[in-house]
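[job 4471] stage=fold_predict status=RUNNING
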Amino acid sequence: YRAVLKEQLNPIVQALELAKGHECSSPAERLAFYANQIAQVHLKRPFLSHFISNEVNYPTGQGGSIIENYISQAQQFMETTLQEGVAKGDFRADLNIVYSAIALAGIMNFHFISKPLHQKFTSFPEDTDIEYMKHAFEIYRRGIVK
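[job 4471] inference complete, writing structure tokens
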């Protein structure tokens, strides 16, 4: 189980490394690139969000430390990038970095966790996950910019 979790979560680390090394002109672009990478991971690994959600909500005792490691790396990346944006004057000075990172993680992941449910109640097209992510990130970005 631990090996399966590590294998399922490894693309998140790869997405983080890509985002850290990606040539972006601004912290907002780096966050958008990361959000897009996470959407790609979810599309390639449709059960990833279920692994994470189940382990967070119903810990097995085997996967908690693995999940926490990956989540903490993602949280640190987002916080560092948000801090950089505040320091550069790109983002609002009163931005709560921790809350903003958590909100972004929610935007990037909740859609994939809840997708089966909201497809029952909305006319959400099946193949527009990347478009959704871009739109959702743009709404988020407008809330954090100066």
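[job 4471] summary: The chain has six helices and no strands.
[job 4471] exit 0
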